[in-house]
Amino acid sequence: MAATLKDATAIVGIGQTPFARHLPQSEKELACRAILAALDDAGIAPGEVDAFASYTMEETDEVEVAKAIGAGDATFFSKVGYGGGGSCATVGHLAAAIATGQASVGVAWRSRKRGSGPRPWTNTAVQLPTPGQWTRPFGLLRPADEIAMLARRYMHEYGATRDHLFNVAMACRNRANENPAAIMYERPLTREMYMTSRMISEPLCLFDNCLETDGALACVVVSAARARDCRHRPVHVHAAAQGLPSQHHGMVNYWNDDPLSGPAWTAARHLWKRADFGPQDVDVAQIYDAFTPLVPLSLEGYGFCGRGEGGAFTEGGALETGGRLPINTGGGGLSEAYVHGFNLITEGVKQLRGTSTAQVPDARTCLVTAGEGVPTSAILLRA
Amino acid sequence: MTATTPSATPPTTPADALLAPVPDEDGAPFWEYAARGELRVQACTACGRLRFPPRPCCPHCRSFASHWQPVSGRGRIWSYVRPHPPLLPAYAAHAPYTVVLVELADAPGIRLVGNLVASAEAPLGSADQAAVRIGARVRAVFADCGGVTVPRWVPEKP
């Protein structure tokens, strides 16, 4: 029998810096601070770290991190592509490495200066020729424009409305209002604010877009056996998956037979095949929310509802505390901080430790997803 | 036919100009045909299937032989967006403008991103909003964009 990933490893430490529009520290310093905080949370010395996993766009190399924190000899390091699609894959890669004996103490992290640094889409000198040549000359410049194109079609085909997107923004904002670390902690949102806010890329308005944040987060992964000796209740990595569907084109997924079923569907099929439980057994979910329409699409992809039902699923407070599926309980990328989704991983850990600021009573299972609309990843956590 | 290689240096784009397409090797023929006012799509020479975006080999039969097949330039709006600032300066000047995704009438499943405008040389923001809806019929025209000819889309007269 080959080594299995199921519950073989656990997240035993989490750490984060403050979140703000502007932090004075460098991306590298923020990364080191978050990683050291996570190791301290786990009660593991930095010299024991022998595995690193990160993901791309801005990047602090593991070489820089390892020598700064005083890590030991590393025997596993991986870097996952596609920006926010890579968040959960970092944990998946570490879990696979540790479950198969390639390393023993793994660190995954994300550090960004997207609050004070440049917006990537404003770079006209460096752009990928494919697919940029097919989209950018026509003013489809930003991720918001690319996703708005799919969102418009989704609304047209299934009757989803701006109210459904508002339900997503509102659930995230309500949780942020309970989380002192969240950027939007003291800033409530109303339906009137949402409906009268300025448009960014019709049909998406300001509040359909995530925050722009400086900050860093990290987590520590070890074997389930080692986890029993750590400071906190272990949060097991029950299943992990990546997803790159056949004929997928990234965020401009306009050129296949079914542009509205994206990488979430592929990741979900593998995830549920490997898990001991199904979508109906998920107590709380952390769903990647760079843009509100990604949530209904992900709800469908991960099997919480049928095709085209993601909008309707958000009705009646379903995503709120006490609802059918509380999501993004720290406020998510829309209202806590946008750090390429890593705060969704740490929030999942907090829920299963019982320490969230919007705790779901006795939460035992949590789905965490990475960016939908790009090659993606997801993990199932179990207490 | 043999695809000609793209020019070694893409056209430089001043900060206040619309972005010219930066072709790759696979995409270069599309822009060369567009410069002649022709809309063509890459087709597999072995199995005949059309594919977009262009790529070295056919995902259906794995043949590396391809040619560029003319299409009618007629299609329907599959989806559209209206970008508002913050945008690059040249685009902000035209905002909100209409970016359409056009599904080609003679190549279902092949969809081109472009701009709906009032006429070939009319500015980016010139489309009549009443004409913008999913399913509306449009046809390709050609216009200069940063020194490169690109397809634009105008409403099909009923």
Characterise this structure.
The complex is a heterodimer of chains A (383) and B (158). Chain A has 383 residues and is an alpha/beta fold. Chain A has one domain: Thiolase/Chalcone synthase (Peroxisomal Thiolase, Chain A, domain 1, 3-Layer(aba) Sandwich), CATH 3.40.47.10. Chain A has 13 helices and eleven strands. Chain A has helices at residues 27-42, 62-69, 87-99, 129-135, 143-158, 162-176, 191-196, 224-227, 263-274, 294-301, 310-313, 332-335, 342-353, and strands spanning 9-16, 51-55, 76-80, 106-113, 199-202, 204-205, 214-223, 235-243, 284-286, 365-369, 376-382. Chain A has a nine-stranded mixed beta sheet. By secondary structure, chain B is mainly beta. Chain B has helices at 28-35, 89-92; strands at 40-44, 50-51, 66-70, 74-83, 99-104, 111-115, 137-145, 148-155. In chain B, the strands form two sheets. In chain B, strands 6-5-4-7-8 form a five-stranded antiparallel beta sheet. Chain B is globular and about 45 Å long. The A-B interface holds A 119, 122, 124, 127, 129-142, 145, 148-150, 152-153, 156, 198-203, 247, 249, 252, 254-257 and B 13, 15, 18-24, 26-27, 31, 52-53, 59, 78-84, 86-88, 91, 94, 96-97, 99, 101, 109-115, 124, 134, 145-146, 148, 150. Strand 5 of chain A pairs antiparallel with strand 4 of chain B, so a sheet runs across the interface.
